[in-house]
């Protein structure tokens, strides 16, 4: 079975799902008749239709159709038969409609197109329609909703898998003018206790205090989220939040959420004008110490990450604690031109009952150097697959956490003739761009897969692969800082760290790579071959990168032309 369903669903006429009662046949019955299948069940509570998705292992999610509100996500997180846990925090919204709730997962889109506008909500009066469903042997289920707001067609897709759920949005502009939007997919996660709530994965990210986008699903309003918390026992030893507009870089690996905060993690708008700047990671983890559970949140298409915790205000809503977080485009609005569309998505995934898999993945990519003795060409290869597999995300995350990341700009290089590279090697799906004394080689396939290679350092700084919602996701994390000489120092990505040692203990490391050749095309695959030589010790190392539709592979070939032994010690950092 494919790890993710294709996004290109059939386009039948939708069935309108509102809270108005039907005259002859109920809305759930009509939906079941047209879209019902194993694992997809349409329900009705107080004349309001819901859809519930349940995959083979019992994991389930529930969606309130009229307002596209995800009110429940219960994945299987323990091996025992009843090992299901509710992930989302919800409370009754109050009012006449008892089915309405606050919290859960909500889509927020605001229109800032009018001059001076602070943002007009686009979805508050929208009427959602069930457009289609799809499934794959009840191991992957998908429901597609749609609505119209002015000249915009909005599609919202909710997908469920055994170890994850995803929400994706597509905004299509059918008008004659560009529209400017702020948007977010905000999730309210449940925690057992206030003192055991944290986020991992935001170290070195820039953030500032900022209110959330206003939403009908909000538990705390923007004003409440930004209100300063009174000193108390939980505030002892904590630092007050900076004033809005003041930027800070997080220098600790864990974001403790017992105190009240409301932040946006993002590249400051002025930083985005530079050639290189740091962006938030594409994924981070929520840690629930009380239930010993973690969930990985993955953003796609959105530029920012919103995060808030209620502090002592949580006591108003019961004994359990909650946070609000998710991908967003808040600081710099998204512009959608006429005839174009914008896409974004969030994935929540876990491997809580597969800790042995986590340990296995970590051991496979141990940072310990393994010596290799050889008198013949030695080959070492590593492949990275883009599927959203929990094991592979642990690989990327643990590598970043355990390895000391090499600063590629700390090694002096000779300037590269970009015009020569463009004239000699273009036409195979690779383009070249000069940045200072370095060069960026961009590999791109027609299916949307791309990889960015820095020359002459050999650093892979970006690998993006197309996803089911039609956009792409960045699988690598890099950071950029200012070096001692004023140049950019790039860390992270995929880099090589090798030493070649002869019997006489003469050590040489291949750092300065030369482009040897480019093969393939943008239709199927692109292969870039680099070479680095030590003429004195007669050692030659080739670095071969191959970009295919669903795989980026890195391969090392070492040629020892001497008669004596050569020891190869090193690793590939990802």
UniProtKB/TrEMBL annotation:
This is Uncharacterized protein. One of its GO terms (cellular component) is cytoplasm. One of its GO terms (molecular function) is glucose-6-phosphate 1-epimerase activity. SUPFAM superfamilies: Galactose mutarotase-like (SSF74650). It comes from Carpinus fangiana. One of its GO terms (biological process) is carbohydrate metabolic process. PANTHER family: APOSPORY-ASSOCIATED PROTEIN C-RELATED, PHOTOSYNTHETIC NDH SUBUNIT OF SUBCOMPLEX B 2, CHLOROPLASTIC.
């Amino acid at each position: 079975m494919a790890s993710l369903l294709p996004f290109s669903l059939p386009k039948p006429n939708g069935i309108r799902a509102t809270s108005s009662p039907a005259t002859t046949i109920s809305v759930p019955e009509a939906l079941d008749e047209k879209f019902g299948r194993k694992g997809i069940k349409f329900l009705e509570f107080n004349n309001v239709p819901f859809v519930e998705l349940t995959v083979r292992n019992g994991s389930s999610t529930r969606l309130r159709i009229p307002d596209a509100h995800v009110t429940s996500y219960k994945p299987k997180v323990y091996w025992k038969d009843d090992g299901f846990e509710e992930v989302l925090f919800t409370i009754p919204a109050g009012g006449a409609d008892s089915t309405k709730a606050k919290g859960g997962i909500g889509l927020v889109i605001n229109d800032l197109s009018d001059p001076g506008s602070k943002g007009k909500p686009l979805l508050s009066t929208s009427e959602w329609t069930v457009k289609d469903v799809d499934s794959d042997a009840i191991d992957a289920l998908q429901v597609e909703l749609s609505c119209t707001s002015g000249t915009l067609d909005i599609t919202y897709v909710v997908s469920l898998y055994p170890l994850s759920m995803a929400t994706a949005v597509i905004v299509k502009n059918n008008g004659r003018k560009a529209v400017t939007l702020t948007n977010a997919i905000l999730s309210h996660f449940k925690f057992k206790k206030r003192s055991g709530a944290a986020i991992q994965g935001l170290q070195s990210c820039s953030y500032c205090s900022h209110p959330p986008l206003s939403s009908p699903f909000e538990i705390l309003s923007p004003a409440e989220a930004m209100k300063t918390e009174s000193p108390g026992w939980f505030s002892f030893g904590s630092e007050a939040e900076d004033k809005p507009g003041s930027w800070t870089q997080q220098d600790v690996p864990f974001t403790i959420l017992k105190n009240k905060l409301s932040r946006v993690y993002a590249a400051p708008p002025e930083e985005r004008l530079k050639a290189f700047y740091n962006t938030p990671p594409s994924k981070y983890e929520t840690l629930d110490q009380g239930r010993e559970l973690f969930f990985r949140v993955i953003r796609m298409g959105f530029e920012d990450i919103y995060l808030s915790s209620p502090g002592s205000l949580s006591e108003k809503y019961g004994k359990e604690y909650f946070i609000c977080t998710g991908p967003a485009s808040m600081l710099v609005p998204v512009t959608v031109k006429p005839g174009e569309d914008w896409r974004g998505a969030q994935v929540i995934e876990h491997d809580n009952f597969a800790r042995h898999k986590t340990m296995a993945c970590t051991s496979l990519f141990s940072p310990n150097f393994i010596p290799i003795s050889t008198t013949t060409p030695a080959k070492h290869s590593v492949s990275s697959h883009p599927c959203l597999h929990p094991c592979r995300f642990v690989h990327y995350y643990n590598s970043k956490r355990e390895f000391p990341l090499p600063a590629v700009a700390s090694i002096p290089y000779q300037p590269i003739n970009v015009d020569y590279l463009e004239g000699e090697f273009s036409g195979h799906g690779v383009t070249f761009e000069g940045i200072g004394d370095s060069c960026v080689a961009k590999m791109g396939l027609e299916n949307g897969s791309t990889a960015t290679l820095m020359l002459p350092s050999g650093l892979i700084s970006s690998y993006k692969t197309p996803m089911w919602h039609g956009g792409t996701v960045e699988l690598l994390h890099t950071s950029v800082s200012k070096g001692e000489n004023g140049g950019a120092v790039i860390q992270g990505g995929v880099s090589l760290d090798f030493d070649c040692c002869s019997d006489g203990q003469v050590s040489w490391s291949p750092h300065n790579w030369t482009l040897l050749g480019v093969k393939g095309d943008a239709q199927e695959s692109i292969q870039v071959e680099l070479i680095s030589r030590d003429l004195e010790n007669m050692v030659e190392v080739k670095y071969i990168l191959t970009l295919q539709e669903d795989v980026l592979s890195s391969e090392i070939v070492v040629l020892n032309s001497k008669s004596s032994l050569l020891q190869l010690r090193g690793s590939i950092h990802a």
